[in-house]
Amino acid sequence: MRDKWSILRSYLATRYLRTWKDRDALTSWQEKRVVRHIDAVREASPFYRELWQGRSSEEWRSFPVIDKGVMMERFDALNTVGVKKEEAMALALAAERSRDFSPAMNGVTVGLSSGTSGNRGLFLVSDWERYTWAGTMLAKVLPGSLLSSEKVAFFLRADSRLYSSVRGRRLQFRFYDLLVPIERHIHQLNVYRPSILVGPPSLLRLLAGAAQSGALAIAPAKVISVAEVLDPLDRSYIEASFGGTLHQVYQCTEGFLASTCRFGTLHINEDIVAIQKEYVDADKKRYVPIVTDFTRVSQPIIRYRLNDLITEGDSCPCGSPLATIASIDGRSDDLFYLPGRDGNSDIPVFPDYIARAVLASSGRVSEYKVIQADRDRIVVMLELQDYASWDEESAAVLSGLDELFHKLGCVTPAYECARYEAPKQGVKLRRVENKWKRGKM
Question: Which of 230, 223, 259 is nearest to 244 (CA)?
């Protein structure tokens, strides 16, 4: 019973009580919450206590930045619930193999990140944090009130006790394993008939194709993209198939970072996380986020640098003072670095520039992936719509990339054009990937 009350309190606070008249009121409220949280973390985490020695909690904005490598290296001292890295990893890997994600350690949920950045990360969530997350998620994602009846179909690589927290009498929640063949999912979805469909855009695209062919006969009121970068090509295809706006949830191991409002605008969840911006362009529109989650205690996330690239958004018609995101453009280690024509330096090329160049070059590209395979070699993988000329369309795409690289001052690279290959089942889709250079920015 306590779990239901905890979820309800979090839901009500998020949906009805946390309102601010303007940006100043929000940041003032947030600052007090963060400082109070820092005080508690300092007492409970030996790692952070040592890291912040000699600094007051009010100076948190200038504390040392950590990343996944530091977190995993100092896992035992960083977490506040006495969980050992070796034991947690063993439990998480056993769950991956058995596909039974219910076991926990001392009431703490243990999970494993997908490891697309090269090293897998562990995350810990206490029961209280699970219930708080569930209430917040319901408040931000449900199209109606908590009293409305909804049937949610959730597609992910791995289930978690975290997600099962949102089940209730009116809210049915069903996990669909990405490792299971899509044909089986289509049959189950036709029986279940979800009102809310949640999954990575690569999976949603497959379901959208099944809907267009008539194999999938569902009409979800809300479709939500998670886990992967949402490419404009996928967005338009999914929206055309299911109708309405494709919504997004930006969540990762490090927290529930953003979600869309009723207008489809992606807002940072500044009522639970503080985001500092490490700008990577002269216009100060693109940044790498440094995350401080002031609701997580079991595994504190304080001044944690993600490797995502974010483009700032403008104000939203919904009137919320929460900052907006125009797009999540991929990972910072997937920037391309091409030789400059001046011969002195490598020129960084943002993933979204490359994606836009491909899509602007041809209207007949149905799937694509662009890979920097070497300093001066790029592989372009394409799938074209029926009856499209491979020679004409591939030449148009390469010409569009040439134009982009010339505009940015890059030496024209060598191109290799190939047929598109979909990622293996359960592997995240990355349409722009740097396999040559993975150094941090």
Answer: 223
Bridge partners of residue 310, in order along the sequence: 287, 328
Mean pLDDT of 380-395: 92
Contact present, 263 and 318 (Cβ < 8 Å): yes
Contact residues for 327 (Cβ-Cβ < 8 A; gap 6+): 230, 310, 311, 352
What CA–CA distances, in Å, run from 320 to 140, 262, 287? 13, 11, 21
Q: What is the DSSP string of 201-245?
A: HHHHHHHHHHHHHTS-----SEEEE-SS---HHHHHHHHHHH-SP
Nearest alpha-carbon partner for 331 in 424, 202, 205, 438: 438
The helix (run of H) or strand (run of E) holding residue 351 is helix 351-361
Q: What is the pLDDT of residues 200-230, one digit of tens each?
A: 898 899 899 999 999 999 999 999 999 888 8
Enumerate the domain spans of the chain.
1-332, 335-434
Determine the CATH number of domain 1-332.
3.40.50.12780
Place of tokens 């836009």: 356
Q: Which runs of consecutive H residues, i.e. helices, occur in 14-141?
A: 23-44, 46-51, 68-73, 75-78, 85-98, 127-141
Predicted confidence at residue 161, as pLDDT, reads 55
What is the structure's pLDDT at 312?
95
CATH superfamily label, 335-434: ANL, C-terminal domain (3.30.300.30)
